[in-house]
Amino acid sequence: MLRYFRIGTELRRFSRSRMQRLAIVAACLIPLLYGALYLWAFWNPTGHLDRVPVAIVNEDAGATADGTTVHAGTDLTDQLLDKGTLKWQRTDARTAHEGLVSGQYYATLTIPADFSRAVTTAGTDAPVPAPLQVQYNDANGYTTRTILSTVMNEVRTAASDSIGAQMVDKLLIGTSDIRGGLVTAADGATQLTDGADQAHTGAATLDDGLAQLDTGAGQLVPGADAAASGAHQLATGTGQLADGSSQVAAGANQLSAGADTLATGADAAHQGAQQLATGLDTLTAQTKDLPAATKKLADGSAQVAAGDKQIADTAGLAAGQIATATTDLRAALGTLPADDPQVQKAYAALNRIDAKTATLNTQVQQLSDGAQQVAAGNAQLAASAPALADGIAAADQGAGTLATGTGQVADGARTLSTGATSVAQGAGQVHDGAVQAHDGATTLADGLDTLATGAHSLADGLRSAHHGSTTLASGLADLAGGAHRLGDGLTSAVDQIPSMDHDTQQANADTISAPVSLDSAWVHQAEANGEGFAPYFMGLALYVGVLITWMLLRPISDRSLAAPVPALRVVLASWLPGAVVAVVQVALLLGVLVFALGLRLSHPLAAIGFTLLVGLTFLTLQQTINVLLGPAVGRVVVLVLLMLQLTSAGGTYPALTSPPFFQAIHPWLPMTHVVDGLREAITGDLGLQFHTAVAYLVVVIALSLAASTWSAVRRRVWTVQRLHPEVTI
Q: 132: which DSSP letter?
């Protein structure tokens, strides 16, 4: 078979010298050097970040919150040093900056002086984020900066989670306190609700009672007015009673005094009556002769009256005579000078005589008349003397009776006096009582006035109180409703605030500070960065290995073309030596990757077979290109195709992130299917992509062989252009 394809002839061409043999060996090692070394170098670069020196500068001055000293910067520094994600080196700001500039450090992380103070502002009125300052120097490597940026973001996230957990723990403690307060408030609201209900019931009862009191007050007002009026009348009556009793007392006193006087007078009258009786007894004894004596007196008086009559008559005559004499004298004196003093004296003497005469005459006449009257009186006395004697006797008897009566009157007067005194004392007591009653009645009247006023005020107040109680009842109903809603709201609020113990609180603090966790799961997980990049770099290495192979081997042998053999045989005769090299390349590459770097093959047979298919596909494709275009142009095209495949295969970044041109050529180039097939053979399952890739590569091989065969047919005819190619490499 091998003789049929003349494979030994092509390979023996490289056994003539040591360098030729080394060239074949180098061609076999090219994929290994290109793929294995590259993957070895970048197998797990992020797993050794602890070798990357990064300066950490802690300038945090600390802070005090709630009496507790906070050193968040020191805590963060210790945490980072203990974790060792990077090669943290604690230093100062100046050394860190100099190290960053000189390349000693790839980055610097500075914790500013106000870091702890900013941390303590969480939950206050003026919270500020805790700052961290990272400084890079892209002169030390852009990729390194990109990786460090990711690490720094993780540091920030971890610091935020840690600080956030502490802050949330404080907030949860406050929440627990709030819950406790709400529980107390809910209990208070429940008590308030009960109290409001009771108050509402009491207000309704109070309203009913006030309504009754209002009605009673309406009845009390006229009663109080009537009572006040009656009290005033009582006061007036007691005043009158006091006055009357006073008058009664005064009258009684007067009566007592009068009775005393009467008693005294009665005693005196009694004594006088006794004396009168005695005197009348004497008088009776002495007047028993009175009638006879009066008879004699009357007789003698008659005689005296007669004598006086005579005297009067005589005196009248004498007075006439004296008047005649004086008239004569005046007539005589009329003859005398009137202004003579003697005459005048004479007239005066005459006047006096006339006067005295007239007086004497009058007196005599009066005496005569008196004597007549005495005589008449005596006559009457004589006539009445017996009756007088009888009267005196009767008076004597009456005096006895009078004496007895006056004695009784005296006794009665004393009794009356005693009674009057008692009456006076009683009247005084009645007066005092009446005064007190008056004072009391006055006070009572004043009090009843006040009571009436108070009753009016009470009625008004009760009416207002009734309205107020109605409003109060309505308000308390609202209060009860509000208290119920408050209680329900507080109970609902309490139910909505979870009750947490310390462990639960800490767990919640951790969860709230980092509420979203990312649990990554892989259907098929690559163990390291190298395994992830292996499909891409294996395809690249095999492509480059085949490229080198066709630099050493002839894509098609001109000698074979001249031989009378089928064109396909000619093509395969040149293809098989390259296939042997490609198989060796695949074996070396897979052997080193699996056994040296530890590449894990999920489907070893499929991976080996597909890798061989990849090597043969690239071998066939590049042979076809070289046969069709000639070695010089073909190698250039192979390199251009390599560049197009590397940029469109999606081996590092998804093709969708590439520009539209690369997305357009992505499904048509072999490297795309090589990467897809190797990914499923090494890491995933043998699904549609794997089988599609296999089919695609088989089709590429078939089409490439067909094209190579067709080109070989054409190459059997030598042309000037073939003998003198325009481009040679």
A: -
Rounded to whole angstroms, the Cα distance separating 317 from 295 reads 33
Coil, strand or helix at 110: strand
Kindly tell me if the per-residue pLDDT of 5 is higher than 50: no
Q: Would you say 259 and 480 are in contact if contact means Cβ atoms under 8 Å apart?
A: no
CA 226 to chain CA centroid, Å, is: 54
Statement: residue 614 has pLDDT above 90 = yes
| pLDDT tens per residue, range 127-178 | 778 888 888 877 666 667 777 788 788 777 777 777 777 777 777 777 777 7
Helix 688-715 crosses helix 567-591 at what angle (to 10 degrees)?
A: 140
SS3 at position 392: helix
Largest CA distance in the chain: 254
Q: Which two tokens stand for residue 294?
A: 């009066």
Averaged pLDDT, 659-663: 86
Residue positions counted in the chain: 729
- Residue 559, amino acid: R
Taking only the tens place, the pLDDT of each residue in 299-344 is 887 887 788 788 778 878 877 887 887 788 777 777 777 777 777 7
Strands (E), 388-479: none
Whole-model pTM: value is 0.52
CA distance 121 to 167: 10
- Beta strands 63-65 and 53-58: pairing type? unpaired
Cα 646 from Cα 639, distance rounded (Å): 10
Q: What is the mean predicted confidence (pLDDT) over 502-509?
A: 72
> Exposed (0-12), middle (13-18) or buried (19+): which is 281, by Cβ within 10 Å?
middle
555, 623 Cβ separation under 8 angstroms: yes
Q: Residues 109, 114, 115, CA angle at the centre, nearest 5°? A: 50
- Beta-strand ranges (E) seen in 647-697 are none
Q: What is the mean pLDDT of residues 111-128?
A: 80
Nearest-angstrom CA–CA distance, 261 and 257: 6
User: Is 596 within 8 Å of 37 (Cβ atoms)?
Assistant: no
Q: Which two tokens stand for residue 543?
A: 């492509």
Distances (CA, A) of 643 to 121, 543, 544: 56, 11, 11
Extract the tokens encoding 112: 């500013």
Rounded Cα–Cα distance for residues 633 and 146 (Å): 40
pLDDT digits (tens, 9 = 90+) for 270-292: 787 778 778 777 877 777 777 78
Distance (Å, rounded) from C-alpha 643 to C-alpha 663?
Answer: 14
Q: Is pLDDT of 7 > 60?
A: no
